[in-house]
UniProtKB/TrEMBL annotation:
Pfam families: AAA_31
Classification via InterPro entries: AAA_dom, DNA_Partitioning_ATPase, P-loop_NTPase
CDD domains hit by this protein: ParAB_family
Protein name, entry field: ParA family protein
Species name: Agathobaculum faecis
AAA domain boundaries: 1-180
Amino acid sequence: MKTISIVNLKGGVGKTVTAVNLAAILATEYGARVLLIDADHQGNASKFYRIPAEPGSLADLFEGMAACYTDLIQHTIYRGLDVIPADMSLAALDLDGSLPDDVHGRPPRERALRALTDLRDAVIEDDAYDYIIIDCPPAFSLASISAIAASTDIVIPLKPGGFEIDGMAELTRQVESVRRVSPSVRIAGVLLTMWYNDPDIIGVEDWLRKNSGQRVFNSHIRLSRPVDKSVLGGEPICQWSPTSGAARDYRAWVREYLGGVDDGETA
Ligand SMILES: Nc1ncnc2c1ncn2[C@@H]1O[C@H](COP(=O)(O)OP(=O)(O)OP(=O)(O)O)[C@@H](O)[C@H]1O
Ligand SMILES: [Mg+2]
């Protein structure tokens, strides 16, 4: 089973759009069993799939209030695609002293950092899902560190631009420090999002391929109005506009990521 965290410290780079569409493509086009975990207090992935943070949300798991991950799972209208939602209560966890004592004697912060690794191990034991996909917030919060530590793969969506590249060096450093604790974590690659055909953008892309030290996927996701509309409509891009450029880009990327050949549909 793969556990994939979608991570970038920068906000607004397409993490959530990538997470919700990766989850949808795996479930609807590959027949995979997918658990999408919203690890962002903004709750955007939850809202996208119209999943309320009641009766339970991810914060309950960190606080030790959910007996089992299955208590928090909600189904979407897409077969095979389930969600654990999040809301603002996740943000409170990062405030000192807000975690309650652990009745089992483990320090609360240590238990919380392991929460998603424990969840992953339980999912493997139950053979419940083929993929866990975690949408992370644009910060090194307790939830995102817990997500990275539980991951087999980190995917870094990157909007090509100067500020975004600066943030990536810091992110790589932080992932490396988590890897000292969880050696199985690997950066699967950088996915260029909101791409458009412009010499400056292509220059940034070339620079990244040569200098980032990370795999940059051949497929990129173009800047496209249907993506914004699909977010407003709460429908994955491949359902909202199946033949749109962005739908083809996301399909091509998933194929490349899973080990198939990039079919060159990305313009
Ligand atoms: N390929 C695209 N084309 C056009 N708009 C896009 C594309 N990808 C994302 N967007 C838009 O950009 C905005 C930010 O996307 P998204 O919410 O996925 O970013 P994020 O990295 O998750 O942000 P945050 O850090 O706040 O969680 C959204 O309004 C989304 O609709
Ligand atoms: Mg987001």
